[in-house]
Amino acid sequence: MRGHAHLVAGYIPGHSPVHRLPLWPKAVLLLAVAVLCLASPAISVAAGAAATTAVLLLVVLGHALAGLPWRRLWRAIRLMLVFLVLIAAYQWWQHGAVVAWQVVAAIVATVLASNILTATTPVDELLDGLAAGVRPLERLGADPERFSLTVALMLRSIPYVIGAFSDVRDAARARGLERNLLARSLPVVIATVGYARATGEALSARGLGDPDLAED
Q1: Which of 2, 25, 111, 133 has its CA at a distance of 20 to 30 angstroms from the CA of residue 166?
Q2: Helix (H) or strand (E) holding 132
Q3: How far is residue 13 CA from its own chain's centroid?
Q4: Across 19-39, average pLDDT
Q5: What's the chain's average pLDDT?
Q6: Residue 33 and residue 107: Cα distance in Å, rounded?
Q7: pLDDT of residue 57
Q8: Distant-in-sequence contacts of 117-120, Cβ < 8 A, 24+ apart
């Protein structure tokens, strides 16, 4: 199950100009990509498609500038390929080929921009940035450290759960039970609950996530 950690985050060490950028400019660029892609339908169809295409090309150039392997770019697209095909088919049917391309290009550009951010920024730096972003909300009762801890646990848990599904599926297939929903789902639930309990006990033993102990 540990072999599925590449499915999320996946920092790739490097010395490219993108790697050397602080977190906040990269976050601003990611936000700009998302805003440009989402706002493009507000202008004409042709101009919107041209703007989205230009943003996508810039993101691909950013991927190359960061020195990231091309297989990582393809892997990010492959994971959502089915959904992209379905979305493109629906948009083509409803609004035509240009709009279909605009929507798909916007999704791909935003996902690839996120991919560049996570591939060129260590997870610790990302979590510190998230905590800093939430810090202004402390006046409203938000706890930045608890927020970053929650995100860290989520990032750590997703590969485990995906790996559990994969392992249980292989085990069920080996026993000829690949069509048995119970055989494919129950072990995953048990493993996930066990993982959650073990994580909770480890946190409790260290006094993490417990406000009473934190105050002491």
Answers
A1: 111
A2: helix 123-134
A3: 18
A4: 87
A5: 80
A6: 10
A7: 94
A8: 117/26, 117/27, 117/30, 118/8, 118/9, 118/10, 118/11, 119/10, 119/11, 119/12, 119/66, 119/68, 119/72, 120/11, 120/12, 120/14, 120/16, 120/18, 120/19, 120/21, 120/26, 120/66, 120/68
Note the pLDDT tens digit of each residue in 98-118. Answer: 989 999 999 999 888 988 988
In degrees rounded to 5, what are phi and psi of residue 143?
Answer: -115, 100
Amino acid at 2: R
Residue with token string 């080929």: 97
Output the six-digit token pair for 101. Answer: 């391309």
- Distance in angstroms between the alpha carbons of the first and the last residue of the chain: 37
- What pLDDT sits at residue 2? 46
How far apart are the C-alpha atoms of 15 and 120, rounded to whole Å? 9
Evaluate if pTM is beyond 0.70.
Answer: no
pLDDT of residue 206: 65
